[in-house]
């Protein structure tokens, strides 16, 4: 695949952290979460009130009849109850998880995104990820969990963003000004556009632009989460999927796809502050390309 | 099954919260996490330093050859890379999770434990949990995550507990005194015995006694985690599995099995304090009997 | 569980082969397939024309989006394409099979059916089948495949059987007379009722009666297949599920559930003969309680 | 991928059936199984004695502990017992099948093999097989089962073939002469080399040569099965994997990998004849790239 196939312009002109933290780096912009950034986050936790940034998932049965009812709904998680004896001394189950399901709040590991046959920070994709799992750029980097300050930029305080709007750096700065908050290097950025997750084929969702991704690069965003991501269809054919084709593979910026931020926005508005302690602690599983996560905002 | 089969003595004399928060309660001792308890926890988060209480999990391949290498190790998580096109535009995978695997740090939902055919707070087990999943006492109660103050009682500060030792309430109080800390109602209790997770058939592990469970009841423990749980084989044949047969089904005390607490103990000793903010945010999945979790201690 | 719970009357009065071929027998009525029975079958194979007695199965995707489309249909088989490299040197997949799915033509192993806590020929169910698989009465007995003479008794030559009709031994004999054929000991019995597999809640399907099961016992049926089985709801509350609660566990008569016999009936009518060589060769997998099978009638 | 990458010489000089039965053909050499070929097969079934050509498969548990024991062995089939109620009214299970496992006797569908980005008879691979399953060249073509005459050519009657031997057309003809049998167009070819399935890294197995594949093309082999296939490592670097890179994608010759033929050879020698009726009736599942099968030889 050459660059023209993957689109998003010429890689040389794009924001990049390849080499910034070494050839073997697996953390990407998590390197920006310094002790100072963590302390800035901890200072926001005062009452211990928590808000989840994850969409609730109702599992579908892994199998259908005769012993489990059928389901008509696809779900990111499929569950099966296990025979453990008769009569059963306990109830137990297994679950099959589709790690990159669009209706699951999940963390994209850096090795998820391939650009010109490579993953961050320039490793050949087929060495980094094999049929037996990911060796480089996997969830291992996130497995011990992390905490930093989170900043919500609510672009939908006055109502959902217009259909097809391409969010720019200027949009993000305007929200900072409106909310009297400033994202510092190492902070996690949480963005709200006010749209439901289920796409309406008639009304294209808004999405992030390459300009917004450049702004994140300049500002030192360590982690991105939002109810808004890359638009489908593309807003800018010359630069499709700026988060998944630039921010993730070039900048090493981990993405939390499909975050649920409505309750967060309501609590921020109620408390009159848009900064909080953000914890991200997925199941401590190594070697995945993505993993469901339940980010917590603590106030 | 009558009581003599399930052991652990006569249910009527055991510590119980059946009815305390209503017939339909699904939270159990999480009801004890009041705003005051949460604030007590938040006050412990000062630097934002985090310690994971989860064992790392290295997934095994879900399938073996010819395209994925075989594995000799069982693992709580089995992973498979998914075909997404050729050449692949991204790397993606699924995972099969054994929710109650003994080498996975996981949260037991209240419906996991059956006592005399019933689950907390007295619901018939076969109504609460069906072939299609759990309707009552499932992970739904934990899905939005929680935060409270955590207290580590390190019973192994002077070395691992003796083989076969049955931990009593007095043991726990002695640790409080040694560490100059006192567990309050609504706090999470984390206990360390200093043993590795892999059982040695020659040397029985220590375990919790019914006396310790009674102490947790009196003190108002909201959540239990530890590298020590119920002993195998039983330490007291008259009262086997006091955590899983009394605390979970009778008191509604959620258990975090197989926690990793060595790093936590080292950090507590280094900082000279045994209290911290504890967050528990499993993937936001409803209806499971258990779920992997990555509890974070924040200092 | 006492006998009144499992219904189907008093076990002592029921047709039974417990002990007939020993306490450890795993073949049940397959013992009746003698060299003579096999030769009788082989004599029917003249042109090599084959008819499948299996329902076609269209797999559903094991997982849904973003890389595999969702499905609205439950299926006995769920398929997933596997990543084998990029670009892919070959195409490969896995499948999850629900062995006892009602829309899958499958063989019930003898250990599938529990009667009064026991499986054929009287072994305790929890010893015969464990969380790790079946040790006794499993598909192992069928794994090398088998051939014998098959006899189709077409009860629907003049149109589908009436709703709710309980098929008796006399019904089967009448079909023999009509078709000028006689089932001998060791033959496989194939029955057609002419109803589609998908149940209509308004119109109860016909089903086999205990009288018909007694007839099979007297005649020495070695294997049963049909588009008709046990009725739901029960036709005779005093004796529910005569095939699954009497024939399978008491007589050790293997059942092929959900056979497709319309094409078979058409070919038999065309050729004017209702006997054929029947081969049953499921995947050679040991230790299952059931397995999909594609029985072939050869003419 | 160009031809030099896929090896096996220039496609234009290779034996090919592209276009022979049309652009949309899905049967390949199964087209050669005429009524005459089937009748020739049926004539061989005299006593009804059956021999399975499938390796026995002992499933491994799908999951490990605490409720199912761990396994140290990889297996083509992984089994899990399902909770169906407490006490259990029946025993049921699911299985996960790795369709192309090297220790499973399985049928390769025509779409399994990709040559220069195409599958038989020249369809683009990414149209034929998608993340949701195979649309062209799948197991659908075999789903109703088939019967034809089978011929065993036992190359190991005098002992296993030498290590690294490349079987030629002349080798196959010599066996015909030795056994006084002649393979006709539409017959299935079964070959025995006398080696165990488990490869010994020190002693390379024998394998089929391109010359043997050309012989199969000239003779009109409809289906191939054997305990010998493509050698690993390649015997002829200029022409690697002649069965999987020429016979399957160019000739449309279905392959049964990893057949078990020792018992078959013993029975043929005992009876003094090497022809039999061969039935191939995999589970009737559409849309797979491969499927476990239990071929039966009937005498």
UniProtKB/TrEMBL annotation, chains A, B, C, D:
It comes from Streptomyces niphimycinicus. Pfam families: Cyclase. PANTHER family: CYCLASE, PTHR34861. InterPro entries: KFase/CYL (IPR007325). This is Cyclase family protein. Residues 1-22 are annotated as: Disordered. Residues 1-14 have a biased composition (Polar residues).
């Amino acid at each position: 695949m050459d660059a023209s196939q993957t689109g998003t312009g010429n890689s040389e002109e794009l924001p990049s952290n390849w080499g910034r933290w070494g050839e073997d780096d697996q953390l990407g912009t998590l390197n920006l979460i310094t002790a100072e950034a963590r302390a800035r986050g901890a200072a926001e936790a005062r009452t211990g009130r928590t808000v989840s940034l994850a969409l609730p998932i109702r599992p579908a049965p892994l199998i259908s009849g005769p012993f489990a009812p059928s389901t008509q709904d696809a779900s990111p998680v499929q569950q099966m109850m296990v025979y453990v004896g008769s009569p059963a001394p306990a109830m137990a189950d297994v679950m099959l998880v589709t790690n990159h399901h669009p209706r699951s709040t999940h963390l994209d590991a850096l090795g998820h995104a391939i650009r010109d046959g490579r993953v961050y920070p320039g490793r050949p994709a087929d060495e980094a990820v094999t049929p037996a799992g990911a060796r480089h750029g996997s969830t291992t980097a996130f497995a011990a969990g992390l905490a930093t300050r989170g900043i919500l930029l609510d672009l939908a305080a006055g109502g959902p963003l217009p259909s097809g709007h391409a969010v720019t750096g200027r949009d993000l700065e305007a929200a900072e000004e409106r909310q009297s908050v400033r994202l510092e290097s190492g902070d996690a950025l949480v963005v709200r556009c006010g749209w439901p997750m289920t796409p309406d084929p008639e009304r294209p969702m808004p999405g992030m632009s390459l300009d917004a991704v450049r702004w994140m690069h300049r500002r030192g965003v360590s982690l991105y989460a939002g109810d808004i991501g890359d638009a489908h269809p593309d807003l800018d054919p010359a630069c499709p999927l700026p988060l998944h084709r630039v921010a993730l593979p070039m900048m090493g910026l981990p993405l939390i796809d499909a975050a649920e931020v409505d309750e967060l926005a309501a609590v921020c508005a109620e408390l009159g502050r848009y900064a909080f302690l953000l914890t991200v602690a997925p199941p401590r599983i190594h070697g995945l390309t993505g993993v469901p996560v339940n980010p917590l905002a603590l106030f």
